């Protein structure tokens, strides 16, 4: 399977209640991380992995996302007239990035339900599910490895990251067995947000999945789990346990990841990314040191 044939599905229907009142009228995915909305980083990640077909599963009040990836002729004309090629390039980049499609989730029944809505669009093509709260640093690509494992094993693939055992209750958690690749494991069992004492490992599921069409009938029969929602973790757990279905593998990610779904981590992400930029870092880094020294 050529990477370019793989499609991306981005569930962006959440209400973003942790960021109220900022998200009262603005989708959380449109909150800026330095000078780009968070969702643009995710689309750029997909494109860098060779994926140009992006389906966004949206909810109400998400028109700003559609507008961001559409062209804005009046703004582009003004920037062209001013000869401001730099700003024009930044404006047109988002509309030229990928073929972005939009589909309403309808009744919000959880991540598993949102993924199930993508069935008609992806057909029998493997597809990457990319959650907008997780930003993967472009210097530490993750999707290419997941695509490679999917191609080699003809399996579904999830992204895993080692976390502090005290934090595992915030994530889905995987029980695994090793392979001959230290960064790839076979998934035996998955548990959604287990208590620390019940967690089978400290390997947490992060927001990247490489799924195949075999997930859809499983999602159809998956009952609501934690939070009363249809959990993709529960569906994948059934797939992993079924010897007659495809296997599930995990890629252990050891790179830089930024969680923009939590207020504190969102602020950290902005500071980290801005401090490493050539245009902002030289002035920002010494300011951070002075600010911290005077706390």
Automatic annotation (TrEMBL):
<comment type="similarity">
    <text>Belongs to the UDPGP type 2 family.</text>
</comment>
<feature type="domain" description="Nucleotidyl transferase">
    <location>
        <begin position="9"/>
        <end position="274"/>
    </location>
</feature>
<keyword id="KW-0808">Transferase</keyword>
<protein>
    <recommendedName>
        <fullName>UTP--glucose-1-phosphate uridylyltransferase</fullName>
        <ecNumber>2.7.7.9</ecNumber>
    </recommendedName>
</protein>
<keyword id="KW-0548">Nucleotidyltransferase</keyword>
<dbReference type="InterPro" id="IPR029044">
    <property type="entry name" value="Nucleotide-diphossugar_trans"/>
</dbReference>
<dbReference type="GO" id="GO:0003983">
    <property type="term" value="F:UTP:glucose-1-phosphate uridylyltransferase activity"/>
</dbReference>
<dbReference type="InterPro" id="IPR005835">
    <property type="entry name" value="NTP_transferase_dom"/>
</dbReference>
<dbReference type="InterPro" id="IPR005771">
    <property type="entry name" value="GalU_uridylyltTrfase_bac/arc"/>
</dbReference>
<dbReference type="GO" id="GO:0006011">
    <property type="term" value="P:UDP-alpha-D-glucose metabolic process"/>
</dbReference>
<dbReference type="Pfam" id="PF00483">
    <property type="entry name" value="NTP_transferase"/>
</dbReference>
């Amino acid at each position: 399977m050529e990477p370019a044939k793989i499609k991306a599905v981005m569930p962006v229907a959440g209400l973003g209640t942790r960021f109220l009142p900022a998200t009262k009228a603005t989708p959380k995915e449109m909150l800026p991380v330095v000078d780009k909305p968070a969702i643009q980083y995710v689309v750029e990640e997909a494109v860098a992995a060779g994926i140009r077909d992006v389906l966004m599963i949206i909810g109400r009040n998400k028109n700003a996302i559609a507008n961001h990836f559409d062209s804005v002729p009046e703004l582009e004309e003004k920037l062209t007239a001013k000869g401001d090629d730099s700003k024009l390039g930044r404006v047109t980049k988002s509309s030229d990035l990928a073929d972005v499609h939009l589909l309403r989730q309808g009744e919000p029944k959880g991540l598993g339900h949102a993924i199930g809505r993508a069935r008609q669009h992806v057909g029998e093509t493997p597809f990457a599910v990319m959650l907008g709260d997780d930003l993967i640093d472009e210097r530490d690509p993750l999707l290419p490895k997941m695509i490679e494992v999917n191609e080699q094993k003809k399996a579904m693939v999830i992204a895993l990251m080692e976390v502090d055992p005290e934090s595992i209750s915030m994530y889905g958690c995987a029980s695994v067995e090793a392979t001959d690749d230290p960064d790839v494991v076979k998934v035996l069992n998955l548990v959604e947000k287990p208590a620390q004492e019940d967690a089978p490992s400290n390997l947490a599921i992060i927001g990247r999945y490489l799924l195949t069409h075999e997930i859809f009938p499983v999602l159809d029969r998956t009952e609501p789990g934690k939070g009363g929602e249809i959990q993709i973790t529960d569906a994948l757990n059934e797939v992993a346990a079924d010897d007659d279905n495809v296997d599930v593998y995990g890629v252990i990610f050891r790179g830089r990841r930024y969680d923009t779904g939590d207020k504190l981590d969102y602020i950290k992400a902005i500071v980290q990314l801005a401090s490493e930029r050539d245009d902002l870092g030289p002035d920002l880094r010494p300011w951070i040191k002075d600010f911290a020294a005077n706390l």
